[in-house]
Amino acid sequence: MYQQAQEENSAEKPRRRSRIREAHEQKILEAAEQVFAHKGFNGATIEEIAEQSDLSKQNMLYYFASKEVLYQAVLRKIFHLWLDSLNLLGQQGEDPATMLSNYIRGKLEISRTMPNGSKVFANEIINGAPHIKQYLKENLQPALEADVKLVKEWIAQGKMDDIDPYHLFFVIWASTQTYADFSSQIQLALDKPSLDSDDFTRAGDFLTHTLLKGIGLSS
C-alpha cells in the first residue's frame, strides 16, 4: 500500500510540473501578444514582456529562450488557431451557404477573442512576413488550395456564381480581420470605448448577407 502511494505520488509530480509549465507558457504568450501588438517585434523588449507576465526576465527566458523564439510562438499560435478551426472543408453543413456562413462567423470570432494575436499576425504580414514566410508557404498554401478546389466544385455544379475563389477568400479575410486589426477606427466611428459581442453579431449578419448574396447564395 505504501509503495503504491509512493508510485502514485511520483507520477503526480511530473503532471503537476507540466500543468505549471503550461500555465506559465500561456501567461507569457498572452503578455507577449499584447506587447507585440502595440510595439511590434522591433519595439518590444524581453523586459517589458516579463514585467507584463509578472515573471522575472530570467524565469521567462527559461520557457522561451529569446524574443525571436517567443515571437515565433505567438505567430504560430494565432496562425494555427486561424487555420485549423477555420478551414472551409471543416465547416459544419452540407450546402455552400451554411459552410461559408460558418466560416465567416468563425473568422469574426477569432477577431473578437484574440484581437492582439490578430494584430501581431497582421503586422508581420504587412512587413513582408520576414519571420514566417516559409512557414506560411508550407502551411497556408495547401489549406487555401483545398478550399479553392471546393469552391470551384460548387461553381461547376451550378450552386453559386462563377467568381474567382481566391478573391472570395481575400475579401473574407480582410473584412473579418478588420474588426481586430482596425478596432480603434471602428470604435471611433461607432463612438464606443470597445466593441462588444453584439457588434460582432451584427457584423456577422451583415457580412454573411452581403458576401453570400454577392456570389449568388442566400444566407
Tally the structural domains: 2
**Distance from first to last alpha carbon:** 64 Å
The count of helical stretches stands at 10
Major sheet summary line: none
Q: Helix amount, in percent?
A: over 70%
Question: Architecture of the largest domain, according to CATH?
Answer: Orthogonal Bundle
CATH superfamily of the largest domain: Tetracycline Repressor, domain 2
Query: Which word captures the global form?
Result: globular
What is the CATH top level name of the largest domain? Mainly Alpha
β-strand amount = under 5%
Secondary structure elements and pairings:
Blueprint lengths: L1 H42 L2 H8 L3 H7 L3 H19 L10 H18 L1 H12 L6 H24 L8 H17 L1 H8 L6 H18 L5
Helix pairs in contact: 1-2, 1-4, 1-6, 2-3, 4-6, 5-8, 5-10, 6-8, 8-10
Question: How does this model look, in words?
Answer:
With 219 residues, the chain is mainly α. The protein folds into two domains: 1-65, Homeodomain-like (Arc Repressor Mutant, subunit A); 75-219, Tetracycline Repressor, domain 2, CATH 1.10.357.10. It is built from ten helices and no strands. It has helices at 2-43, 46-53, 57-63, 67-85, 96-113, 115-126, 133-156, 165-181, 183-190, 197-214. The radius of gyration is 21 Å and the shape is globular. The termini are far apart. The model has no long low-confidence stretch (mean pLDDT 87).
